[in-house]
Structure formats: C-alpha cells, structure tokens
C-alpha cells in the first residue's frame, strides 16, 4: 500500500461514487475499483459498501478516513517543502562576519533584504575572528562570510567586493595629537599601536611615516580595540565608517595626512558551491553591489 491508495480511497469517500472519483483522478473506473480492492485485501476489512457504482463508508472506512487525510496532507507538505528547498526558498544559511560589517550597516541592510525576499530561509549569523573566516567558508563549516579586505588569497573561494573606504586614527582625547585637525604619520613613531584584525592601515601608516611601528595587543573586535584606546594603552588605525557609529568615552578620531590606502568589506563564498540557497544569496548580493555602486 502506498500514498496513491490513500488518495484513491479519499477520492471515493469524498464523492461517494466510483465513476465520479475516477473522473476526478483521471483514471479508469476498473483501475480505481482494483486499487480500492487491493487496500481492502491488505487491511483485511471492507472500506465501502457498494451499490452499483455508488459507495458508502463502512465503520472501518470511517475510522480510516481521518488518518488517511493526515497521511496525504503530510506527504504533500513534505513534497512542497522539498520543492521549495530545491528552489532555494527554504533552508538554512550559516554566515560569519567581521565586526566592522555591523558598524558600517552593510550587514544589516543585506540581511534584511534577503529576509524580506526569502522569509523561510533561516539565517544563523555570528561574529567570528576574521583570520578564520575565508578558511571556514572554504572548508564548508559556514556558507558565507563578510570580511574586511584586502585579504590574502584562499583556495576555493570567491569574493564580492563592496564599497571602498579609508582609515582614521583613533586616539585618547588627552593625547597631544588629538589637537591636530589631521595627524602627520611622522609624529606617530613613538606611539603604541593597538591592532585591529585588518593590519593594512597600521602598516601603511608606518611606511608613510618612515618608521617600524611599536605593536601593542591585537584584541580582536573593533570595540575591544577602542576600549584599549580609551584606557590610554595606545592608538589605533581603524576604518573611517565607524566615525559617528561607535563612540567610547575619551576616544576621538582624526584623519591621517597622506594615507591613501583603502579598505573594503566583501562577501566570501565557495567557488563551486551547488547549494541553491547559497546561490540565491550570492546572486542577490551581486545585484546589491551593482545598485549601491
């Protein structure tokens, strides 16, 4: 007995007539009669009392009908869910991100856009150390990752690059350099640098200033970096997008004279990922990039 038998049984029960049920199902009356007879033989009970081609449920048939409707309903629901998953309309995505994606607002806008278009795809979004993100994607531990570039190449992944931005210097308000409208890199040789996860700003500033930087701790997130700046543990070169978005007591931001290096946020995905849901997310973000450029 399979799901077809239950559908045939329900068609006859609903119409109380073999000819009408057969027409509704698009099969011949003898075929329908044979299928119902197979059910009755397998169950060992009579499901219908037959008068010519009319049919009325027996007591056993009345007991079976509610369960049959439930079986068919669940089977059809499972089919719909499978089809939706195959179209990328249903499922789950694991997304890692570097903290600066949140401060810039890019992550929020893109997640909201995807949620509106695909409300039944569950997004599990969590902050992770940026150095691990490309490899996590390449190994399939997460599906997608928002990183701050430039980054080194990682085998098996591609990157959608979003808007570029520059860097500013975060320093304690009582640092003498805070009085400057912009800071000359040559005046920073004696400073200790608190390191964010993206080092290119710090290294480029030191090269511009002609010194080897005195490196302090690398606490991870931008909030942790700025917390150390607020405690007068050093200065930090941070993305300019956090100005006005992340404020800590005693921390001010100043432009850096002559520093032209750019940073950017990007979406990392596996090059040959065949998951439909991942493909839908990536394709949407390609359009997102084009519309925001």
Automatic annotation (TrEMBL):
Give UniProt keywords alphabetically.
DNA-binding, Transcription, Transcription regulation
Question: Which intervals hold domain HTH lysR-type?
Answer: 1-58
Alphabetical list of Gene3D superfamilies matching this protein? Periplasmic binding protein-like II (3.40.190.10), Winged helix-like DNA-binding domain superfamily/Winged helix DNA-binding domain (1.10.10.10)
Decide whether keyword Secreted is in the record. Answer: no
Lineage, top-rank taxon, reads Bacteria
Q: Which family does it belong to?
A: Belongs to the LysR transcriptional regulatory family.
Protein name from the UniProt record: LysR family transcriptional regulator
Tell me the classification of the organism that encodes this protein.
Bacteria, Pseudomonadati, Pseudomonadota, Gammaproteobacteria, Pseudomonadales
């Amino acid at each position: 007995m399979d799901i077809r038998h239950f559908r045939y049984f329900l068609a006859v029960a609903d119409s109380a007539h073999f000819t009408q049920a057969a027409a509704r199902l698009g099969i011949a009356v003898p075929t329908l009669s044979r299928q119902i007879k197979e059910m009755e033989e397998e169950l060992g009970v009579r499901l219908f009392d037959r008068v010519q081609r009319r049919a009325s449920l027996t007591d056993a048939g009345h007991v079976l009908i509610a369960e049959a409707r439930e079986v068919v309903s669940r089977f059809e629901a499972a089919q719909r869910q499978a089809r939706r998953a195959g179209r990328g309309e249903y499922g789950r995505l694991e997304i890692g991100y570097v903290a600066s994606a949140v401060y810039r607002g890019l992550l929020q806008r893109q997640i909201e856009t995807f949620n509106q278009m695909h409300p039944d795809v569950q997004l599990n979004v969590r902050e992770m150390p940026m150095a691990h993100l490309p490899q996590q994607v390449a190994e399939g531990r997460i599906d997608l990752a928002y990183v701050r570039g430039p980054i080194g190449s990682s085998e098996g992944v591609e990157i959608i690059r979003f808007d570029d931005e520059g860097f500013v210097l975060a320093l304690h308000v009582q640092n003498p350099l805070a009085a400057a409208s912009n800071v000359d890199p040559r005046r920073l040789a004696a400073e200790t640098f608190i390191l964010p996860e993206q080092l290119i700003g710090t290294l480029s500033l030191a090269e511009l200033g002609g010194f080897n930087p005195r490196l302090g701790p690398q606490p991870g997130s931008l909030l942790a970096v700025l917390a150390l700046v607020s405690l007068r543990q050093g200065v930090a070169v941070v993305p300019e997008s956090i100005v006005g978005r992340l404020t800590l007591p005693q921390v001010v931001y100043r432009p850096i004279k002559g520093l032209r290096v750019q940073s950017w946020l990007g979406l990392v995905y596996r090059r040959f990922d065949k998951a439909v849901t991942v493909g839908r997310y990536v394709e949407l973000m390609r359009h997102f990039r084009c519309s925001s450029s």
